[in-house]
Structure formats: structure tokens, C-alpha cells
Amino acid sequence: MCEQLKARKDNFGTSLNALTPAKITEAAEAYNLLEGRNISLLTAVRRCLGIEDQRLASIPFRELCTLYTESKRGRDEKHLADMRRTMNRFPSLHDQLVSDISHRDLEPLLNEIVPGGRNLMMRHLRAFFNYGIKRGHLTENSITRLDFVETTPEEVEVIAPEDVAKML
User: Fold this and answer.
1) What is the pLDDT of residue 9?
2) Cβ distance 93 to 58 under 8 Å?
3) Is position 162 within any domain?
4) Which portions of the chain are predicted below pLDDT 70?
5) Other residues' Cβ atoms within 10 Å of the Cβ of residue 129
6) Residue 34 is part of which domain span?
7) Which residue, 53, 98, 119, 164, shows the most beta carbons closer than 10 Å to its own?
């Protein structure tokens, strides 16, 4: 038993010597940041590494859109042209990793669009992000956190031919 305790003391002392004073200071600061939270330093580091692994698997938005449209080549060309227009409508997203794009990034961009157009853009973005989820480039579709605009179709107004003639 005494030998086990001595071995533990020796092992702990050896591992502690492997830490530089800077690393010890950094670990102490990390523990201070975690104080009051029910999370260990090791758990926090593992979660952070998981996020970093996801970022490494991600690709820029423009690349995701291009991969999507290439995968659908030969299908409805009008739809693919609409999807390309949607991609080009958001140049500020082009170089962002898709895993980093959140609903907070998308909402102000979508709020600038009229309701009917907003819903169309959201459907296109949802398709891009769903494709990215299937390919492992991101884990969550940011569009699911946004609301589609409720639109109520209005009755079509018929203008009498004689009124049209007066306007012309």
C-alpha cells in the first residue's frame, strides 16, 4: 500500500512538472470562468473541440450552394436558376462557413425582403442547409429558427375594359 501511494505521488509530481507556469495560470483562469457553472474543465474542453471539429468539416456558403446546384443538374433548370439567384442575393454570406451561419445572421437579411419573396428565399436557404446537413457540413438548419411570413391571398380585382381604355 505504501508503494502505491509513493507511486501516485511520484506520478502526480511528474505530470505536474510537465505543466509550464503559463499553462498552470491558463488552467486557473479557465477554472475561474467555470466557477458557478455545473461543468468541469474537461467537459468544456471536449465540447469546444466538438465545435471546432464541426467547423473543420464545414465549407463556405457559396461552395455549399454550388455543390447543391451541381447535384441537381439535369432537373428543373428554372428552379436551379432561382437557387443561383438566391445564392447571389446574399454576398455577405458567401465566404462564411455554413456551420457559423445562425438565424441571427439571416434574419436581418431576410427582413429586407417583401413577405412573399422572403418566404421563397427561406425555402431556398432551407434546401441549401438541409443539403449541407446531409453532407455533414453543419448540424442544424438555421432557417428552422425563423418564421415564415403568413400571407393571405387577396381577391383579384377585375377592371372593366372601358376603364382600361380610359387609362390607356
Assistant:
1) 63
2) no
3) no
4) 1-2, 4-6, 8-17
5) 23
6) 2-57
7) 98
